[in-house]
């Protein structure tokens, strides 16, 4: 299943900054400056007249012509759907509102109640027309400074958004609720988090005349995983965007279960069929979906062991689905589900969806739910999380989702080999690597399709394209880029030619660069005049400047600059003489006051003062200007206050300035929307590029963490007994040398290592706390990582192409399903037995421990015989030692044990895998360790020896196994330890490009460092040892770049090039962490570095001190000269004839 279309762990929609500035009612004094929003194709404005309110009108005397209450069949199904949702409401206030609903129309309005009229032309009638377009969405209608909902929608707002009903709980009015404009984002978040979609209706902004009709239009929608984006093109901030949530449909055929995922945002769908019930439930558990549809073919399936009530059989799947809202559908699963999606989202029938299903052969089956949870691919409390150790702690978001989906749905063997080849190349990269900008594909598609991408988003898109080009132009990264094409094709379903990708990335990047104002350009400064508050120009011009290059807005810029200058002249001529007159006054207290002030709410610059009018008009300076003053008024002609004044000239200048600014802003928005339309034509390239960088970032991060943990790449090979396999490239089993539990850090030497040479089924025994469960988890995780192309926690490994990996651990009962823990275990074992083949890896921990010992032992023995006959690889661990007394008919099963040793008369586990049988359970020792009273343990021993004395002596003889100890400290490494290893936390910081001056400085520093250090190394090694001489090879790390994984664990000397052209010299064994620390400081986020690797920290320290003492002699300024005094190395003058001094 494509990870891009079916996976998300996002729980809630992110909180945006308030849209009150964006969507507020017009406060401009000049309302005609605001242009109406651009209407997209298919939208229309419905105008209505505001009804007059007649005093004294009552319900009994109203005689209005109402619409027919007869519902069409299609509307009836929607009303029933909403009625079911009303039955789920629990708040007392909501319950009271529901009593006033009447399910005779889509709004649930009772036309006999107050404000319930549906007469044509009324607001309720208009809302009903919008509701009929999207009948299963909550409708919020803009009415002045509020977004209002009525009827059923009002009940939903009260129940899930925490809003109070309008008018309280009075019983004579229809339910009404709403939120202020400034709280819209919070309300949408609350509704979408609870699974509801919302349709938002906006008012057309613009001039309104008396008795004029208000126009409204559908401005957008908010769905779970798809936020409301209307108006974002004009704001100056970016937004977090969750992964889109699909609509999911499930059906069943003779081949197994099928899951269909449809993404309305991307207009794509994918299918994943031939699934087992457990694999299907795993996908449902890891997928946050918008709506769930179940095909009627599920009503007749017979695979489960528990009835679906009246719907048939299904067992585990029904238990998963019945706790969630779903709907039945029938017919062709794909076609009918697409029809449901179009109906759900109000799409036209002509809208098409692209099939992105990648059909690939030789692909392992998806993980079962038990396997995924028991190794922490799905986070489970108490289970070591595999995802936490695969990536650095600072790698979050989309790369983590990709790795999780890769593990849940292992790729085809060819793709896994390609991923491993990519990781191997990444591990050996010596040059600096891009930052790998990650943008959600859903975000790209929605913003470009709706023409709402702002300048910040275009800059991010350009970063994505430029990083693709950077990898292409770098000979060391180009091969990696080529190999990334295939995993990206699998993730997106888009097959794109390599050269076409590069050419179109270059074309799109150039187009954005031609249009968008980029960081570092300085041709758009905010207007500034001495007598006008700077905040005024900042507020007025920051909403459109710094977005589009000036060359495209030259006329608009000139017009605004002229208008600003005229405004400055008007303010200077009309207000400044009055200010001068007030300042010349000598009255200390109670005298005149006045200033030129910015009225932010009214977007005006006015004179604010009091007691400045002269008692006697004597023709003194300023009197003429005082006579010209008039009271300032707001947009509705109301007087603002007693202290605010203006003049006709200032008002005319303000009007011209606002008009010029409005035209400039409208032009900016028009150009941004035009650019969105242009890039939408290349949306496939953009989606492909953004996904490629997500994969690249995930794999680079994995390689970095793997090298730090000293993990290795396994050898992947097909099974030897396949007919089409050549013996030279094949494997007759699996061998892992030096295997460690994945949750321990090998680099810190905190784990016992085991060698697993598996060519058949193992029957494993061992004591409690002896490491059986840890061994099974470790083998499962290493095998899964191997067949996904990733690094594993071992010294070396040969892993065959498994067609499935299945792990069964302990089971719990399920009272809601009426199943005991043993029933659950048998259900999971049934699934494993059904899916196991000779190419499977089956791992079962402590089989049949939930039932009576004798019969459980026999069931376990029969299961072992069956797995042995199948010929799969795997391990079955058990404490049922009676299984060795059964006459089992096995041909290949091998007995293995977790070893113990005797120390000071006590039996202790070694956590090592050895040949043989271990019947020592250490049950009494484990109980004592966990605090069971000594008296209970002593009595237990007495009872044991009284009944099992003979067996105890036999076990004592059988458990004299070879003592295998580890050279590594294993303190605390048993199963009761805390399984989570600590991971250092890093912080991610943004970076920017360097200037040409910094490039020149970097070249000079690189030349000086190379020559200085090379000569010093010759001096240190001596001329006779030139064969051992280390070559100084400086590598540059520019802004928005990071060190390659090859620097991990190596000593290096680095030089930081600060923006003030001063240098900092240092040495480190953690270059990546040191660079992040430097860039975290104020003003340092865009610094670049030079570094070179040296063999050992001692030499690095010597060269650090040497450079600190020698670089100033070449004319460079250092900020850490004091560090050079800590050692005497390099303090004498060192000639450097070939390096030009830096001035």
UniProtKB/TrEMBL annotation:
Its keywords, alphabetically, are: ATP-binding, DNA damage, DNA-binding, Nucleotide-binding
Query: One of this protein's GO BP terms?
Result: mismatch repair
Checking InterPro entries in the record gives: DNA_mismatch_repair_MutS-lik_N, DNA_mismatch_repair_MutS_C, DNA_mismatch_repair_MutS_N, GIY-YIG_endonuc, GIY-YIG_endonuc_sf, MtDNA_mismatch_repair_MutS, P-loop_NTPase
Q: Which domain of life is it from?
A: Eukaryota
Gene3D superfamilies named in the record: DNA repair protein MutS, domain I, P-loop containing nucleotide triphosphate hydrolases
One matching Pfam family, short form? MutS_V
- Start and end residues of each DNA mismatch repair proteins mutS family domain: 840-856
Q: Name one GO molecular function term.
A: mismatched DNA binding
- Full protein name: DNA mismatch repair protein
Q: What is the species listed in this Swiss-Prot or TrEMBL entry?
A: Actinidia chinensis var. chinensis
